[in-house]
Amino acid sequence: MIFVTGGTGFVGNHIVGALLSLGEGVKCLVRPGSEKRLRHKVEMVKGDIFLPDLAKRIEGCKAIIHLIGIIREFPKKGITFKKLHVDATYAALEAAKKAGIRRFIHMSALGTRENAVSEYHKTKFEAETLVKESGLVYTIFRPSVIYGPYDHFVTMLSKVIKISPILPIIGDGLYKMQPVHVKTVALAFVFALYLSQSENKVFELGGPEALSYNKIVDIIANVFNKKIKKIHVPLNMVNFFTKRLQNFPFYPLTEDMLVMLLEGNVVKDNKFYEVFPLKPIRFSEGLRYLK
After folding, report:
1. In the chain, where are the structural domains located?
2. Which residues are in the NAD-dependent epimerase/dehydratase domain (predicted)?
């Protein structure tokens, strides 16, 4: 039995599906009201990661896959990077120790580092440090932008390109990403359970191509046979509105998100594909799953 936190999310659902396909039993942490977001029939632990009796409820599991994380804070609702990255990871690690679970597989993010500029990456690094110092056998993944069925970035971008002849681009659009298909990510988390070479290691995880945002838009348009005119919005204008509107839920950006976007998201260490028996999926090929 594998215990999965964050299993109702985009990546989590794919990981749960991959576990089930390989015959693993799965137990998912599910917040009340989010049951419908879980697309698979599994045993559920209802509540959040801070349940006082969580350890007792996951006894007998052989590993934890910890996926809880956010990309944006809503402090008034108690949704912060500190709580959902650092505190949640600490709670998961403590529950694992009390339940006698020795294997811990952790979702981090590409760009995570000690001297990070964004609060998102700073708190991800704090969480990674907790995992490394826990005494558990860990594997940490740092994926670039993850895309695939039900994702919140490429799918949305594809929908806009399908219906609109123009697309606003922040700045020059030359900042790079290395999109990785969710199928690769899901299998990575599952295979880590069986690969001793993955133990106590950190893996950066991206697709086979580092692509500028402009190129990503062009590839999507080409795959869906659409013509698109890119309108580049000056950075000073984006900064102006972001500073003033980022606290409103309707506005799609925060200053933290803008920092991460402009610094790029490219893999520097390619050892992942040396350890995991997976073939990297080209972005144009992966997009065909969205059609």
Report:
1. 2-146+180-207+266-278
2. 2-206
Longest dimension (CA), the chain: 56
The CATH architecture to which 2-146+180-207+266-278 belongs is 3-Layer(aba) Sandwich (3.40)
Query: For 200-237, what is each residue's pLDDT tens digit?
Result: 999 999 999 999 999 999 999 999 999 999 999 999 99
The dihedral region occupied by 14, where left means phi > 0, alpha psi between -120 and 50, and beta the remainder, is: alpha
This prediction has a pTM of: 0.94
Give the start-end residues of each E strand in 10-71.
26-30, 43-46, 63-66
The DSSP line for 3-25 is EEESTTSHHHHHHHHHHHHTT--
Q: Are 71 and 56 in contact (CB under 8 A)?
A: no
What's the CA gap between 58 and 64, in Å, rounded? 9
What is the token pair recorded at 144?
A: 């670039």
